[in-house]
Amino acid sequence: MLTINNFSKTYKGGKKAVDTISLKVEAGDIFGFIGHNGAGKSTTIKAVVGVLDYEEGEILIDGHSMRTEPLICKQQLAYIPDNPDLYEHLTGIQYLTFIADVFGVAANIRQERIKQYADAFELTASLGDLISSYSHGMKQKLAIISAVVHEPKLLVLDEPFVGLDPKAAVVLKQLMHELCGKGSAIFFSTHVLDVAEKLCNKVAMINHGKLAFAGTMETMLAEKAGGSLEDVFMDILSQEV
C-alpha cells in the first residue's frame, strides 16, 4: 500500500533531514513510525502524502508514484497532521460534507459513515456548531472523521493521539483496527510508545534521519530480550549514528 525506496530529503543550507530510508506498509498493517523530535518523522510523512517535494528516492501509494501521479495517490489516502487546519467558518457537518464531496462519496454512504463515526466520538450534537467554537479535542475528532469518510486505502497520521481524551483514544484504536480489517493500511507517528507497542504489528524507528529498524513489532522487541519498545527506543538512541 505504501512503498518508500531510498528516500532522502535535504533542505536549503545542506541539512539532510532524511537519509536514504526504505520501508513497506502492506494492506492490513498498523505501522508505527517512531523517533525523537527532529529525527525526520514529519519530513517523511509530509513527503508520503504529497505536501513536501522530494528529489531523491521514490514513494509509491498502491503502486502509483507520488512524484508523477500525485492526484491518483491522494485519492487513495487520507492525512491527519499533528495540528490539523480546519475551515473554522464552517459548521462541523458542512466541513464533513465538503470533504465527502471532494472524494465523491455518495450521499447515502456519507450519511451512514458520518453518523457512525460522529456517534462513536460523541460529536453528533456539535456538528451543527461552527468549528471555531470547538475545543482542540473536538477539532481532532472532526479531522479523524473527515479522514475516514471515504475509507482511504492508506491512512497517514502524525501524532494522532495528542489532544484526545482516553475514551476518544480507545475509539480511534478501534477504528484503526476496523479499517485495516477491511484491507486498508495505517502509517502513523507517535511518541506514545506503550500505545504503539500494543497497537502496531509493524514498526520503524528513525534516528537522526537514518532508519535504525524496520520490521515486525515482534522482531523489534526481540532485539532486547524481555524489554519493552521504550527500552529498545532508548537503547537505539544511545548508539552512535
Automatic annotation (TrEMBL):
It comes from Vagococcus allomyrinae. It holds the Pfam family ABC_tran. PROSITE patterns: ABC_TRANSPORTER_1, ABC_TRANSPORTER_2. Gene3D superfamilies: P-loop containing nucleotide triphosphate hydrolases (3.40.50.300). The keyword Nucleotide-binding applies. Keywords: ATP-binding, Nucleotide-binding, Transport. Residues 2-233 form the ABC transporter domain. The keyword ATP-binding applies. InterPro entries: AAA+_ATPase, ABC_transporter-like_ATP-bd, ABC_transporter-like_CS, ABC_Transporter_VariousFunc, P-loop_NTPase. This is ABC transporter ATP-binding protein. GO terms for molecular function: ATP binding; ATP hydrolysis activity.
